[in-house]
Amino acid sequence: MRNLIVLNRGHVNPESLTIPDLHPVDAVFDPVSDSVTFLLTDVDGSHIEIQQFGKSGNVTVLASFPSTSRVLSFAHFADVAQLVFVFCNGDILTATYAEGGQVDDAIIELVGSIDCGIISAQWSHDEETLAVVTNEMKLLLLSRMFEPITEKQLNPDDVKITDSKHVSVGWGKKETQFKGRGFKAREREAEALKHAGLHDSQGELRDPTVNEIERGVLSLMDDQSVRISWRGDCEYFSVSSVEPVIVEDTGEMYDRRVIRVFSREGKLDSVNEPVDGLEHNLSWKPQGLLIASTQRHTDDDGDEVLDLVFYERNGLRHGQFNTRLDPTAEVIQGLEWNCDSEILLFKLQDRVQLWTTKNYHWYLKQELHFPDAVSFVKFHPEKPLHLMVGTASGVIQIIDLAYKITTGPTTELGSGDLGMTLVVDGSTVKITPLAIANVPPPISFRELEIEGNVTDVAISKSNTKYAAITSTSDLVFSELSIEEMKSGKHPQPMSHVSANTFMNQIEVAKQVAFINDTFVAIAIEAPGYSRIAIFEVDDIKNPTFNETVEPSAKLVLMKSRADYGAIVFQTVDCRVVQLDSTQNFQPITTFPQLCHSFDVVVLENGDFFTYGISRNGKLFANELEVCSGVTSLKVTDSHVLFTTVQAKLCLVHLGSNQFDAISNLLTNSEAADHDERIRQIERGSILVNAMPSKYSVVLEAPRGNLETICPRIMVLSAIRKFIAHKQFKQAFLVCRTHRIDLDILHDYDPELFFNNIKLFVDQIEKVEYLDLFVSCLHEEDTTATKYKDTINQITDGVGALQLENTPTPTADSGVIHRIIKNKPETYAENSKITKICTAILGVLLEPDYKTKYIQTILTAYACQKPPALNAALELISTLSGEEAESAVIHLCFLQDVLLLYKTALGMYDVKLTLAIAQQSQMDPKEYLPFLQNLHAQPEIRRKFLIDDYLKRYESALKWLFELGPDCAGEFDEYVISHELYTVALRMYEGDQARSRVMLRLYARYLSESSLFSDAAVAFEYLGDISDAIDNYSLAKKWKQALSLCKDDQKEEVAVRLVDSLTQDHRYSEAAEIQLHYLNNIDEAVKLYCKNYHYDTAILVASTASDKQHLIESIDGQLDEGFGTIAELLADCNGQMNSQLRRLRELRAKKSEDPYSFYGVPDNDLDTPDDVSIAASETSTTPSFFTRYTGKTSGTAKTGASRRTTKNRKREERKRAKGRKGTIYEEEYLIKSVGRLVERLDQTEPDAVLLIEGLIRRGKKQQALEIQRRWGELVSFIRENIDEIHDMSERDRERVDDNGVVYLIDIIPKPVIKDFPKVRMLDY
Fold first, then answer.
1. pLDDT for 1263-1291, tens place per residue?
2. Strand-pair partners of 48
3. How far is CA 1062 from CA 1099, 1243, 1322, in A?
4. How far is CA 322 from the centre of its chain?
5. Can you tell me the distance from the alpha carbon of 1169 to that of 675, in angstroms, rounded to the nearest whole number?
6. Quick check: 128 and 143 in contact, CB under 8 A?
């Protein structure tokens, strides 16, 4: 869909500086110094002068010397400052010059000579090999140092023909050769005619499915020359020459044009198949497998045609196309490809043609005429759209081209937004309004045929007027309305303006643009200046030349402003200027670099925004560079669209400064996937057109096919506009078509939605549409997540972006959530869905709407959170006949049928329940008997059975209660089976007898449930003392139990209580029972000592009759307590020393060799050459994550699908164990010290009581030992606690199941308390 336009035609007229009357005959580009090197000589070729023409216009003479022959090949090796000349007489000369030196300093050297002379020579593209064909038809390959690589005779025997029809395959007989699938049948038919005595009118046997084999007859316009062409990678080259061919069977001899393909070493690879009329032209596509040539022949219709034909490297034909030239008069003198193989150039007598191809069709995109004959044409080796053309008069034109996609307006919504696209193809302008008919090229919707080849074309604001420039600078105007175009009419030329009416002979019209529908501007170029001619085209049949204006600098590129209110153009000094219909110039901006494509937009406030793309892919917004790697650009009424080399389509809000965010997103593919402003496209695709009213963009893939997409940002922008203007139906239809969540109709402006809910219902109107809206609602605010509006988003990087589908972090983000099957659904308070459904129901339940929208009302009830199924079923119960049946079917579609079945049953409506059951998958054998039984029961019994079936046991118990005393036994059994004791107590609150029965049942239940304390209170209240004592005893409430016992029961109960309290380590309470109720002083003292209550034990012993024995018993208990505490202190001290030592070892190892400690693979290990070190799916080599996760690099990938609770529990167990050598060991050691401190704090009160008891019993040394060792341990811990808790951030790193590194919480440092010392021991 791209056209080619001329940006600039620079004119250079080299003049000889050493010898007069020399003129240029050849030139080459020098990409190193960005200059052009000219070869000047006279008519006889007696002298040669080489000039270098710089970009700034400076001229340097590199060499000047006499010659005796015509130059065949000329090359400039700028890297070694050397010029190489190949002459017809066989001489090969080099001229080595000194940069910045004088012309006389050049060293001229004859490096070789071929006596027989040279007929053709061509350097390879890498300038390393010279291919030469001599007059004796020998092929020579020379290196850059002119050393021979190979010498080969071009032998006519390379082409052998067995007869005039077929080429021999080299084996078998002629009779057995395959001649096509239809040949045998045709042979039998001819044989039958012969035996019947009839004449075969079809002549020679020939299979129509096989192309007729051609002889390779020479074209009458073949110049008999030899041509050489190299492939782009320089691995192969081709040679085209005329060879005498002998048919072996007949001995006939004739000349044939032969194309041989040789390898870089000179080995013959293939010879082309014979083609009649093949000519001398030869050019190998640099980036392809095709060799181009020309063929002059008669086509199947009998017309003489001049085709361009293609060969593959194996010599077989691979397509052709008609050059549309006059085969009787025109001669293509040469073919040239540009460096990226996109453009094929035809060199004709006085002009050149530029062709491109897409979708297997060749387009003539540009034809350049010259006042004199064209002598040579050269493309730049690195710039694909840069070429120079030399003419016979000595003037060399250096031409800059650019691609241009000619489109109609893209900022005019409605009738002007048709996606109009114009494609130039020779004398035809292909017209396609993509909004009406998305016709794939090379087909088009309509065509405009013009006399002469078109070089540029433009369309007006209304998409009805056309203006075209021909290659002879004539102007053609046409007009056709859209309605006429839709009816099948094609536009026709309506007026023609000859070039000589508004230009002189040295000027050329190169570009055209419209101002609204009224004026047409023509960019005219001449050597040294440019101007703009303006025509008034109100009457398209009589265009009027208005005025000519001349910009201050040379014009490069001109186009209509985005709104067609004026034209804008870029000058050679990168300035962008506006020219309106009153011929007033207004400077807009200056780009940092010259741009080959740009657009100018005027905002509502009058500000100009100019966007341009330079040749190296930089995107500029006014004077600023905002992005790089850009391939195409388009603007609409609200967005700037551009594609990048990363195959991304980017859309930026018009006038915003979001380009930095876009650039950052382009480097972060994961973030870009969730941003509405970036979309992935096919690699190499470019923008063709944009249609904002259709929310669509048309892209062209590299192979030429079109793709229409609807970027989300354009769709959402249109939806937001519709909502803001209360056009809810249009917004709904767009959401439905483009699969946008319908929540946006509410979420974009909730207040507007609720204030216009009735208007919303009236506009949507269709029941199906309202159902779809209500049933597709979600709780999330889509405008804050997936459809976040980016128009006001100003960011500096990816981190500040609120990306689509990115969950907002919450306080419990680190909590592990388990999926529990059959878990009841929970509903949020103030549900958005419920609010919307309630608002819609408020409208639909009005009398004017209710009858029509019964289905939508049911949908709204069913979609509430939680669903209002009771209300929906009550509504259905008011309906009858088919309406009720359809309502049931609809509700069953929206909700779980079993849930509806139970809800209807809970309403005690058996008929409605039956209707719902019939819509389910339930077995009628199950539900019909059940419902029939219910229908036959009395009302209260029916309700009891229903509630019991639905497990609404409290409600069922209520119906049993209403059945009266006759069902008392059933009532009690139901209470027991469903544990409804509290409900029953509530019901019998006024009936004392039944209440005591229920309470006794409840007390038994509590006792059986091990709730002994509550059961004991209930039994005591009921007067059941025995059960009360047993339950108080089991509850270990010894005071209440003993208070209810009789004298003869107390000892037995007391013994049981002592045993149970001792088992629970409640020694003090057991001691009191032994002392006061069992009078066992000895056991009481022992129990007090076990609880470290030595003071109480001594007190009891002092009042006893056997005092001495008890004191000895206390001393033994003191010694036992001393041993326990001393052992504890020794264990803690040993643990503290060992763990501190291990921590120091770990940290020393970490500082000495962190790579080994953290598990990073050693890159210095020698790896065998034949062993791959790349990671694979099944690899089990330990990786960096192994020490963190326990997984190998192989299981890390497959384990991604096993993120279960079991895995997490395993991880917690590994952390708790702190196995030696794992990353968890340090964390485990630190926490272990914390647990040691907690243990000391818990034991401290017992130690204080022990010391006091030891002192009272005269065991001062043991008390001093406990106090001293405890103090030393506390001091040791306090001195090292800071070192122990010195855990670096690197040590706190962990890796989760997703491979994301996170930090564990800092382990809190424990508080080290001082041990309370006894003053008499503190010395």
1. 888 888 888 888 988 888 888 888 777 77
2. 41, 65
3. 21, 20, 36
4. 43
5. 44
6. yes
